[in-house]
């Protein structure tokens, strides 16, 4: 009598079950997206009392930069007007990231809400992404108003590139991450004082609303390594591509600053206290 051995043969009509690792990866992505959505809603509701005021202040700063610099110059030449109109959006994005973000983060550390946030079972990069989204949302109305004010005030015609939106998001992400990392790593009082210094450097000693050639040679060299000039060059090239361009080296410098600042902010948030 022969012995029959049963071998399991897969039924080709039955769909294969996904591997456990794939299920785990899918669940992780779903949880991360859900956490991001919930954190974004929580951050918007948390700042809802001051959100309209923050947007108004940023919008006023953007318009004042365009019109106020023009009053200081007097008879604004077309080339200078183009610098003012294309520099104001960068000032708006960078001032939100360098000044408002670290100030609000320092306040959270002082009142203890930042410590409470660290107790939530949410990945720190998800928390960072939700917070940076809120700051980008606050800056965007000012960016649009600055462009409209510049075109209206100086009767300009811009040649906008298709990549202006991702370029603006890159600038906003870089600036907010630098401010976030600064506030997370430094004591609150030091971070808030540093923001006061940065706003003067930003408005008076950075080639955003005027050419870099107006600065001393040593300061031009410094700005070649800092992210501010690449941010301004990228925004200018995106808004007036017929008049301005940006070098590959400047783009690489900005991307390196963005990656380093996001990593620093994420590391600072994930530190155990």
Automatic annotation (TrEMBL):
Domain of life: Bacteria
UniProt region (Disordered), positions on chain: 1-26
Biased composition (Polar residues): 1-11
Transmembrane feature ranges: 50-73, 79-100, 125-154, 160-183, 190-210, 243-269
Record key words, sorted: Antibiotic resistance, Membrane, Transmembrane, Transmembrane helix
Localization terms from the record: Membrane
One of the record's GO molecular function terms: ABC-type transporter activity
GO biological process: response to antibiotic
Membrane topology: Multi-pass membrane protein
Chief location bin: membrane
This protein's GO CC annotations: ATP-binding cassette (ABC) transporter complex
Pfam families: ABC2_membrane
InterPro entries (UniProt xref): ABC2_TM (IPR013525), ABC_2_transport (IPR000412), Nod_factor_ABC_transporter (IPR051784)
Residue ranges annotated for the ABC-2 type transporter transmembrane domain, each copy included: 42-238
Descriptive protein name: ABC-2 type transport system permease protein
Organism: Lysinibacter cavernae
């Amino acid at each position: 009598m022969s012995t029959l051995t049963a071998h399991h043969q897969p039924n080709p009509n039955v769909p294969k079950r996904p591997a456990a690792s794939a299920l785990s990866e899918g669940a992780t992505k779903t949880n991360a997206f859900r956490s991001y959505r919930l954190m974004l809603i929580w951050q918007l509701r948390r700042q809802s009392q001051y959100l309209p005021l923050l947007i108004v202040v940023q919008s006023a700063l953007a318009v004042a930069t365009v019109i106020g610099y023009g009053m200081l110059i007097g008879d604004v030449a077309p080339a200078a007007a183009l610098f003012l109109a294309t520099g104001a959006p960068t000032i708006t994005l960078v001032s939100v990231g360098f000044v408002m973000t670290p100030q609000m983060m320092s306040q959270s550390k002082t009142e203890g809400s930042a410590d409470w946030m660290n107790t939530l079972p949410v990945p720190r990069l998800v928390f960072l992404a939700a917070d940076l989204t809120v700051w980008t949302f606050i800056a965007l109305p000012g960016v649009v108003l600055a462009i409209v004010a510049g075109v209206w005030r100086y009767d300009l015609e811009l040649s906008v590139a298709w990549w202006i939106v991702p370029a603006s998001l890159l600038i906003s992400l870089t600036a907010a991450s630098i401010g976030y990392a600064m506030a997370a790593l430094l004591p609150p009082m030091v971070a808030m004082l540093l923001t006061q210094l940065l706003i003067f450097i930003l408005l008076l000693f950075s080639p955003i609303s005027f050419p870099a050639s107006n600065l001393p040679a040593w300061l031009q060299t410094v700005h070649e390594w800092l992210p501010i000039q690449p941010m301004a060059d990228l925004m200018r090239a995106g808004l007036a591509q017929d008049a301005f361009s940006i070098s590959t080296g400047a783009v690489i410098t900005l991307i390196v600053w963005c990656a380093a600042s996001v990593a620093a902010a994420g590391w600072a948030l994930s530190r155990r206290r």
